[in-house]
Structure formats: structure tokens, C-alpha cells
Amino acid sequence: MTEITQKSRKILIIDDEKVILDLTSIILRNRGYQVFTAQDAMAGLEIVEAQQPELALLDYMMPGMDGLTTLREIRRRFPDTYVIMFTGKGNEEIAVELMKAGASDYLLKPFNNQDLAERIENVLHIREIEINNRELLREREHLLAEIEAWNHELETRVQEKSEALQRAQAEIVQAEKLATLGYLSAGMAHEIRNPLNSITLFVQLIKSGPEEPEKLEYIDKILKEIDRIDSILRKLLDASKRPRYEIREVRVDQVIDGILDIFKPQIEVKRVTVERRYHRVPPAVPADASEIEQIFTNLFLNALHEMPENGILGVELDHDDHEITIRVSDTGPGIPVENLPNIFDPFFTTKSSGTGMGLAVVLRIVKTYKGKIEVEKTGETGTTFRIRLPLRAT
């Protein structure tokens, strides 16, 4: 050990015998240590607190607070200060007691200079190793905590990416369904409407013949069913491709208010409460008003159908610099989990009557405007649809 290194080491000597203090101080200073002395335990504890010495040489027998009590106090309050005990009683019982209390070593009085120096060097070396080990353990715990945090962040990112990939795949599948539907529906509509037109003409010819009340009733029923088939075909075409449209500046809040007014009789009959929460009214957007109306007509119709009397129909409207966010909520029984992947599919319905085209039409319109629609939440307390529409076409 070099003198420069030793000078950085602080040693405290606590002994009530001044001769021991003086002689030991001289020995240690000559070896390059920075030495502090105290003749009682209380003064020694104050020095330990102020100077944080690496090592304390402590007498076992002292007036007031004895050496054993002082040893325990130093180890409790200042664990980085190691202790070598001086004792005039050399028996195994005392040695065991001292080591259990935290002493790093002990010396029997009287001791020789060389033995003292070697014991000090040995304890300081052990101290350095143990403190380094503690630092390494702390560093290890810190690194393990960092690794755990990184793993958690990585898992979160993987989960987010997986969910985003699943959403993207679902959107691709949905787009493919709509594309296939468009191709099929165009052909179907053409093929079905031709015979429907012929049937209509023949029925009209029959109707213009002799009047028989019973036959006329059958004819009216046939014409009614033809109109119903034609209506289904129109809905199918609306879901699969964009009909004629007219783009103008449309205020979404005004469209919502207008559709709610149309549904006012049904709302009043079912005693439904309408809760409008327009946080920020968005500016007008370029769109076809009738298409935007279809979005909310279908969503409100579904909500009113699902809700019992005294339900709550919620409409929330907000926007930022990029998009408009609309939430339509109800207090119905919710959508069964197994049905969620299919609710936007054409012809999918759980109603006893209905074509199952409403949400398919909504999806087609929302995608036309580069927007997104999703079920934000559903359960026993109701369902919330979230629609996001860009403020300007991208």
C-alpha cells in the first residue's frame, strides 16, 4: 500500500487510556494514516458521524458506554466503518461475542506494532472487497431492474404492434369482403332486377284485366314483395359501392341534430334520454350530406332497437387539428363477444327481421372518407361506437 493511498484512509482510536491513544496514533501516522482520537464512546461516535473513518480501533473496557455497546452502535449507524476491538481479556467467549456484534477483528493488549499494522491492513483489505462487492450487488440489482423495465417495455411494444397488426389484418379482410361484395352485388342486382321488371309488367297487365277482389289482393301482395326485394337490392348496392353523391361543406353536429329530430317520435315512445356532449364543435367538412346522414341513421336505429325503455342514447363530439371523433353509445345489453368480428359483415344480423346491411353501409361510408369505426367498449352496461373522420381528405 502506498503512502498516498494510506493518507486517504481515516482511522479513529477510542480508548480511555491516553498512553494507548498517543502511542497508537504515532505508529499509525508514521505509516501514513489520518488519525483521530477519542477518550470515550460518545466523543468517538461524534467523530465517526463527522469524519466517516474507514476503521475504528475500539477498547473493550471503557467507562460510561462500554466497548461492546459502542461497537454495536457503530455497526448499526455507520456500517461502512469497520471495527477492531482492543481487549485485555483473552478468552473465546469474549471473542465470539465481539465477532457476533460485528467486530472485524480483535487484539489482545499489550500488542506489538507489527501485529497491529498487519491486522489493520487485513481488515482494510477485507473492507475494500466487501464494499466493492456491495457496490457490485447494487449495480447488479440496478441492471436487473433496468433489464426488467426494458423487457416490460419490449413486451408492451410487441403487444401494441401485434394488436395494430391484427387491426390492420382485420381491415384488409373487411376491405376484401366489401370488394367481393361489390363485384357480386353489381351482377346480382342486374340479374335479379331483369326478372323483377318482367314480373312487375305481367302483374300490372293482369291487374288491368277483370276485377276479382281476391285476385287483386294477391296481386297487391306480389307487388309489395317485389318492392321489398328491390329495397334489399338497393341496400346491398349502397353497402358495396358508392352511389351518386354531391360533395359540399357539411356540419357533422347539424347532421346529428337533424337525425335526432327525425327519431324524436321513437325516442319519446321509448322514453329514451338523449345526452349530447359536444366538447368542441368541428368545422364543416367536405362530404355528401346524405352519406353522413346514413352513418347516424343506422347507428341511432340500432341503438334504439337494442335499448329497453328509459334507456340513454349518448352522442359525444370532439375534434383536434386532424380528425373529428364521434362516439355513439347506448345502454342496451351489449354485443356478445363472439359476434364482434362479424358485426360489419353484410347480411350479418341477430334481429328476427332486418337485412344486416346497416353497419356494412356505415363501414363503407366511413372508409370512403378515409375514416375508422370501431366498437370502443361493449358489455352489460351498453355499447359505444367510435367514429373518426379526417377534417380534410388525405
From TrEMBL:
The EC number of this protein is: 2.7.13.3
List the catalytic activities from the record. Answer: ATP + protein L-histidine = ADP + protein N-phospho-L-histidine
Spell out the coiled coil positions from the record: 126-178
* PROSITE patterns from the UniProt entry: HIS_KIN, RESPONSE_REGULATORY
Q: Which CDD domains match?
A: HATPase (cd00075), HisKA (cd00082), REC (cd00156)
Q: Where is the Histidine kinase domain?
A: 187-393
Q: Which Gene3D superfamilies match?
A: 1.10.287.130, 3.40.50.2300, Histidine kinase-like ATPase, C-terminal domain (3.30.565.10)
Mind telling me which Pfam families this protein's record contains?
HATPase_c, HisKA, Response_reg
Tell me which residues bear 4-aspartylphosphate.
D59
Q: Which UniProt keywords apply?
A: Coiled coil, Phosphoprotein
Task: Quote the protein name from its UniProt record.
Answer: histidine kinase
Per the UniProt record, the source organism is Geomobilimonas luticola
